[in-house]
Amino acid sequence: MQRTPPALLPLLRSPFQGELLAWLYLHPQAETSLADLAARFGVSSATASREADRLAAAELITDRRRGNLRLIRANTEGRLAGALTDLLALTYGPIAVLGEIIFGVPGVEDAYIYGSWAARYRGERGGVPEDVDVLAIGAPDEDDLYEAARTAERILGREVNVHRVSAARWHSPEADPFLTSVRERPRVQLEAPDRSGST
After folding, report:
1. Which of 107, 135, 158, 190 has a Cα at 20 to 30 A from 120?
2. Fold of 93-189
């Protein structure tokens, strides 16, 4: 069965291809095991291996073996590296970098991307979103969240809006039309650096 091209960047074969490339190109110094990336993005080892084979053959990534581990990283020396990094930052970048940045703020218990970027990520058609909306759940300091958003903007090349809500309000959203809307529309759960998989 042929899969629908991803709405965020329809020229790619699959959402996983975008997630993998964005993770690698937006963490250019990191060398990551293919097994860890498969777990992070919820795909089989075979799927991850096939994708890595294609990307290595196209010289978009480099890979090496260490024992049973296959380690891969972005090919930052390639002619496409700069343009590809910019393109991935604008499309799949939020899922690759926001978890680390938002969970780096003390007091954040959970976080989601919502709004137009989340809708594209979940397959709704439309143009490239102008900004990224993030819901930070917990009791983080507003100034720290503001600084985190500015850091994310420098990496992603677009506006990042962070809305803070207490855990109590998030778990009892009935009286809050905004939170009801966030729950009913597409959203993407962000992962803390020590977690794996994506929601």
Report:
1. 107
2. Beta Polymerase; domain 2 (3.30.460)
